[in-house]
Design brief:
By secondary structure, the protein is mostly helical. The chain has two domains: 3-67, no CATH class; 80-110. The protein has helices spanning 3-13, 17-22, 28-38, 46-49, 53-64, 69-78, 81-110. The protein is rod-shaped. The N and C termini lie far apart (96 Å).
Length: 125
């Protein structure tokens, strides 16, 4: 078993680490670096693995039911409005191009079709 698999097993045995990643206090990369440097039995894990059984139960209850107000507020804080505005602008451009294409097709179907002048007629005789 390589270190990554051992780290995954460590995380499965300690689900309280997930809340630190979800709340943006830590990243999986930082946790893995700590695991790689110190292993599992060091004092480095005490702040993250302390007696968190009650916190894990309440987190499980929150995910099973409605989201808490703090989770909703944190989600809205994490939303990047510039990215959303850029996406909306791009969608508007695409819709504008499609609308132009559809209107050009309608104009072309409304035009009279070209009829060549008969060869034997000159100047509308």
């Amino acid at each position: 078993m390589d270190k990554l698999d051992a780290f995954k097993e460590f995380v499965r045995n300690n689900p309280s680490l997930v809340k630190y990643v979800k709340s943006n206090e830590m990243t999986w990369q930082k946790f893995y670096e700590l695991y790689d440097l110190y292993g599992t039995d060091e004092n480095i894990w005490k702040p993250y693995l302390g007696d968190n059984t009650s916190e894990v139960k309440t987190a499980g209850a929150a995910t099973a039911g409605a989201l808490g107000v703090n989770e909703i507020v944190n989600w809205f804080k994490a939303v990047d409005l510039n990215t959303i505005q850029t996406g909306i602008n791009n969608a508007q451009r695409v819709l504008g191009v499609l609308q132009d294409l559809v209107s050009k097709e309608n104009e072309e179907t409304n035009k009279e079709s070209y009829r060549p002048r008969p060869l034997y007629k000159h100047f509308e005789d």
